[in-house]
Design goal:
The protein is α/β, with parallel strands linked by helices. It has 2 domains: 97 residues, Urease, subunit C, domain 1; 305 residues, TIM Barrel, CATH 3.20.20. It contains 14 helices and 17 strands. The strands form 4 sheets. It has a 7-stranded parallel beta sheet, sandwiched between helices. Bound molecules: fe (ii) ion.
Length: 428
């Protein structure tokens, strides 16, 4: 007898009527009408079973701190960084742990199965690092948490940032981070990329830099990141987060840059909600919206995962750990509206991001880890349209979150008793 069978599911690739059997935390079969009994059986009713959402860019040390010690009045990235600088010395390790674990509760309830979180290393006590290492251990049964050592105030600009970043890696942080556009000069930004990539190469680690998160068309750190990745043999292990300057760059230059990025196998991580909110703040009209060139990067073969970046922190007052909100915004701002493009946006918050994080056993297939979501939608496009209700969240073969399907009682003469937004399937 297996532990769990989900019956009559639709899969992201369009297969319908599929049963999924799980034993000891692993998917043992995915096929029509699996025989036998299970300890737990879930009727998917034809709805979509997808692998977990993956958030490849987040700040778990800042999340849920909204309003402390004050609000971000200008709404800019730079005021957010200043505000975070005020909050850092005020918060205790226990507070950061408490907020981090509470966010993970919300995240798993919304179907997130893996998060890559940056953790600020510009603090001589490394409170955030200590806290998030503890959170990583606390949530490991239901969320794969990957940590990036992130010198928020600049690896070179802050006098102890580089030492503290190395200390964080020694303590068990997984990935090397950085923020070249926040260094004092373009030259220092380039130097920080060299130092950080060399550190990663020496230790056999991945790299994920906040890169060119600016409206400046001359901010060109992604070119340097691609160069250093190539020089140090880090192909496929380096991500450029944000890349908003690419929105404003000269088209001729971009025609040279994108092939260099593809050659270095850079992963791109735009953060649509945050990019559209923070960028273009110095513009009048027309107002640039800052999302990087998603379609052009994708068409050049570059792997792209959409990140959420922030929820209720100094940079963003909203958010609810909903990667379908992220996909929805990316779809709109990137004008990715064909059926094929919309389906790709779902991949940008699932399998593409799993590839960025190097997750093993990811997917709804025999041999994969028994991690998946049952969504109240018939396919991935409908999931984005509805920001579909998470009916069940399964981790390691166990149900860890459950929701009643959404359906509203109508009191209108001559009309049906109930309305369910998932009933409105497109006509082909
Ligand atoms: Fe970020």
């Amino acid at each position: 007898m297996v532990d769990l069978i989900v019956r009559n599911a639709t899969l992201p690739d369009g297969r319908t009527g599929m049963d999924i059997a799980c034993k000891q935390g692993i998917i043992t079969a995915v096929e029509a009408e699996i025989g036998g009994e299970a300890e737990v059986t879930i009727d998917a009713g034809g709805w979509l079973v997808s692998p977990p959402f993956v958030d490849p860019h987040f700040h778990l040390d800042a999340t849920l701190s909204l309003g402390r010690p004050r609000m971000n009045v200008s709404g800019t990235l730079l005021e957010g960084i200043a505000l975070w600088g005020e909050l850092k010395p005020m918060q205790s390790i226990d507070e950061i742990i408490d907020r981090g674990v509470r966010y993970c509760d919300l995240a798993v309830s919304m179907g997130i199965g893996a998060i890559r979180s940056h953790v600020d290393t510009c603090d001589d006590e490394l409170k955030g690092v200590q806290a998030l290492l503890d959170v990583r251990a606390k949530v490991k049964e239901y969320i794969d948490l990957q940590l990036v050592a992130f010198p928020q105030d600049g690896a070179l600009r802050d006098p102890t940032a580089m030492t503290n970043t190395i200390r964080a890696l020694d303590m068990g942080v997984d990935i090397v981070g950085g923020i070249p556009h926040f260094e004092r000069t373009m030259a220092d930004g380039a130097e920080s990329i060299r130092l950080l990539c060399e550190t990663a190469a020496e230790r056999g680690l991945m790299v994920d830099l906040h890169c060119d998160e600016t409206d400046d068309p001359m901010s060109r750190h992604i070119e340097t990141l691609a160069f250093q990745s190539q020089r140090l043999g880090l192909q496929g292990r380096v991500a450029g987060s944000h890349l908003t300057s690419m929105h404003s760059m000269d088209n001729y230059y971009v025609s040279k840059l994108i092939p260099l990025m593809a050659e270095a196998e850079i992963h791109a991580i735009p953060n649509p909600l945050i990019n559209i909110l923070l960028q273009g703040r110095h513009d009048t009209y027309p107002k640039r919206r800052g999302l990087t060139r998603v379609r052009e990067l994708r068409d050049a073969g570059i792997n792209i995962g959409f990140g959420s970046d922030c929820v209720m922190d100094p940079w963003y007052s909203l958010g609810r750990a909903d990667m379908l909100d992220v996909a929805h915004m990316g779809l709109h701002v990137g004008q990715l509206s064909s059926r094929q493009d919309m389906a790709w946006c779902f991949e940008a918050v699932t399998s593409n991001s799993a590839q960025i994080m190097g997750l093993e056993g990811y997917g709804v297939a025999p041999g994969c880890q028994a991690n998946f979501n049952l969504l109240q939608a018939r396919d991935t496009i409908e999931a984005i349209r509805l920001r579909a209700h998470r009916v069940a969240v399964i981790r390691r073969g166990k149900v860890v979150a459950r929701n009643e399907p959404l359906s509203t009682r109508l009191y209108l003469d001559g009309r049906p008793e109930r309305v369910d937004p998932a009933e409105f399937a497109p006509r082909s």
